[in-house]
Amino acid sequence: MTGVQTCALPILARFTRSAMLAFFAIGLVTSINLYTQWVDITDSVNPTSDEALETFAKILNTINILVIGYTVSQLIPIALNMAEKSKLEDIMKKSLGINVISNVCGVMPHTIRTWEKRYKIFSPDRSEGGQRLYSEDDLVKAKLIVSLLKQGHSISTLASQSLQDLRSLLITEDKDSFHSNKMLTSVSTKKLLQHLENFNIDLIASEMQLIRMSIGAKEFIFEIVLPVMHETERMVAKKKYSVTQEHIISTIIRYQLGQINLANVGPNIDRFALATPEGNMHELPILIADIICHVNGVSTCYLGASHPAVCLSEAVNVLKCKTVVLGVTSSDRWDFEKNIISYLKSMDKYLNSKVIIILGGGIERSEERRVGKECRSRWSPYH
Asked: Which residues of 333-372 are buried (b: 16+ CB within 10 A; e: fewer)?
């Protein structure tokens, strides 16, 4: 039984007692009145008796009116008190401010407001000052959603779930995630590589899609995508796989990563811009970085590949991004050692404010063979 029901029961009992007593009194007086009226109709011989009965009936009617008036005067305060109690209980149930939800769940208030407005996840009341008031259920729901988002679920799919559904989903995934995911990823990686060895493109695509839909985005990247790509690159270096096989797996992975639709709901003031320098067509590292940002609640502006320094700087100025993630995979067509310093200097000329620039990527196998062991020690693929 809830607190509201418990508090309302005494008031309801009092209301019922007062009403029953009043109805009993009204019924008794009305019955006597009807009886006297019936006697008056059936026995009209004695005029004196008729006058007495008429007077008595008037007295009974007056008593009836007094009883009704007294009953109403007693029931109205009880009803008002019940309504006020109910309203107070509702306010007490929803008394958590947005900062409480934010601090407990580790989510920015801006994100919580976005969940409310765009996805209708919460329906908070308002205080007299206009501030949002959330319930304990809202807090529990927010914590469950944050946990499930970290596992790779999208906010759009979680928004329509009830509190019980979210609990069930989290319990199921927590129970099965460690053993089943480890088994799934290790076996699946081997199967994907076997399919790649035999050029079974359709089997690679279907297997990759099944894995992506079975585990979270973060696990898909770190347990499947990166291990498969590393192993493929190693096999290409040993000349056991061809460059064509490497391109096949890269294309399929790029498509599957594009199917991961995570909410881009972080605060705009902290947005990351993701791009590659002009001439660098290796988009996969920044695509992976974009997904990891979303998993961790970081808002991004995904700008794609091959941007001239001046154009990228102008875009960063307009978008007001404070951090730029550059994919700088070195290859035969784009040399990191030769190009990166001049590119960063060109960007610096056109940026209006201080910007943090994060460099990440790797080296193609053909380039790795050319530059040798020293370069390998400084740049691991998809660092």
From this structure: ebbbeebbeebeebbeeebeeebeeeebbbbbbebbeebe
